[in-house]
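Researcher: Go.
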Amino acid sequence: MKIALVHNTPVEGKLDSIDVLDQVEMVSAALSGLDYSFKTFPVGEGACPVSDLINELKAYSPDAVFNLFEGLSDDPRFYPMVASIFEAGGFPYTGAPFPALFTTTDKILSKAILQANNLPTPEWQQYDGSFEAITIPPPWIVKPSWEDGSIGIDEDSIYYGREGLISMLPLLYERHRCQPLLIERYIEGREINIPLLEHGDGSVEVLPISEITFEDWPPDKPRIVGYKAKWNEGAFEYENTQRVFYPEEAPLELMEEVAMKCWKLFHLGGYARVDARLDEHGNLYIIEINTNPCIASESGFMRATYEAGYRSLDFVREVIAAAIRRRNHPK
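Model: Structure:
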């Protein structure tokens, strides 16, 4: 088996960007353990990185591509791009197919799809430079539409007063390169991760569900997994968030059911994670659909695979087999 390991060239010194190298390390070790031959293809260097990739893949002629590409020059709008190249070239590739990457990269588009299909998600509206009024009830959380990895999200992203929110929107819009902003009703409650894994036989497994707990959190501090909680080692938010599997007094069967509906609705593939919230009354809300979530060795997703009894090489073998099966048996 010959695998092309494709990833973006990270931005030096940017924690959420250089994380891709940890993922490359995990996958490389697993491929070696499987005795697969492989070659890495970093994308982002040179005058024409995309055309270079096409030519290099044709020359290498892999059996499958392991897709770890997250954006060109750290611009998330290009996240789905290389998947379309793999499609056009006829290469099987791991993870979500191009349509799923396209729809889930845009938080506003994915929210519209959830809402149109009557899946539970907090009320929302968008800001793209101007609008007439805030129409959803407070409190609100504001997120840049195209970013992932909690980029642009911290406790200051939550607003309780209408005037404060309205005054900040133009500044946030400019700060995030004029990408649309998602204004969402903030759900006070429990943070839930629901990971899914596609196997080589086409079956989809909901891996152990986990809850992010907020240890010794000040009462007035919003309980969110923002940028510092994900990336800034040593920060209070990083050190005081813990992952607990099989959360107690949580509707696990409902969570599995909702996650599988998201898998089918968004035509997901390979591996994905549905992020959700439980409010104080136990109501479940879908917050985000994460295609190709981080799979560094110590990431939340990989910890769920270990909890399910799989090794890293088991995971890598299955998602490659699923990619090849999807190419040979398109739906």
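Model: The chain has three domains: 2-94, 121-185, 188-328.
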